[in-house]
Amino acid sequence: MARSSGGKSALSRAVRVLEAFDPSRNELTLTQIAARADLPMATAHGIVAELVELGLLERRGRELILGVRLWEVAVRAPGVFGLRETAFPYLEQVRDRLQQHAQLGILQGGEVLYVERLSAPESAINFTAVGGRIPWYATSSGLVLAASASPEELNRLLALPRPRFALEPQDSNADFKNRLAKVRQEGHAVTRGYIHQDSTAVAVPVLGPYGQAVASLAVVVPSGGFAVEPVLSVLAPAARAVSVKLREAFAG
């Protein structure tokens, strides 16, 4: 594969162009893409032109957006797509019964990637978005997935820098291990006021065919008058049902 003078392949530079887009900036000019991808303007121009030709980017006036062709390719990913399709009806049930945000997340590196989110009118304040990422230590989904991780994976997570993301507490590794042990014992994680002071998130693990946590099912509810039991009475059965469906799909 052709490489630039900096040692980066053409493919890796194209990925950097695509990763310049995020849920907060889904329309970018060529200049913005070059800056966010840390590429020379001429290099970015050539990559963007080819991605537009392939349908992976689309032009909207002076700005560019991710193309529908990219979505067509992405939804074929068997892991995320199968998980999302399996969990979707149960997410709907959680959303409808609690009338609050219901979301599905997976652990990617040191972040939670949200692969689905359903909202209801008058829902609590929630800054997550489909395709968005939040550091694992700043969200209930991240805590419940970290609590279910292997000792090696947990040590890797704890070794990563933990800059303040929003309002989450700044804990030591020892404090994190104690908190995650409690999450593991109770089977759920609660983060009150981590992202916004008026919102509380509750997450439970979704288990894969070998009993490992492959995703988290979470809701974001108002902090005022919060009680965990009514939330768990809806959330936990939904996560167990998704886990059963995943095991059945794997066995079948």
UniProtKB/TrEMBL annotation:
Per UniProt, the keywords (alphabetical) are:
DNA-binding, Transcription, Transcription regulation
Q: Which SUPFAM superfamilies would you find in this protein's record?
A: GAF domain-like (SSF55781), Winged helix' DNA-binding domain (SSF46785)
Residues in IclR-ED domain copies: 69-252
Q: Which PROSITE patterns match?
A: HTH_ICLR, ICLR_ED
Q: Name one GO biological process term.
A: negative regulation of DNA-templated transcription
Report the protein name in the record.
DNA-binding transcriptional regulator, IclR family
What residue intervals traverse the membrane?
none
Q: Which Pfam families match?
A: HTH_IclR, IclR_C
A GO molecular function annotation here is: DNA binding
Taxonomy, superkingdom: Bacteria
Q: Which InterPro entries match?
A: GAF-like_dom_sf, HTH_MetabolicPath_Reg, Tscrpt_reg_IclR_C, Tscrpt_reg_IclR_N, WH-like_DNA-bd_sf, WH_DNA-bd_sf
Domain HTH iclR-type: residue ranges: 8-68
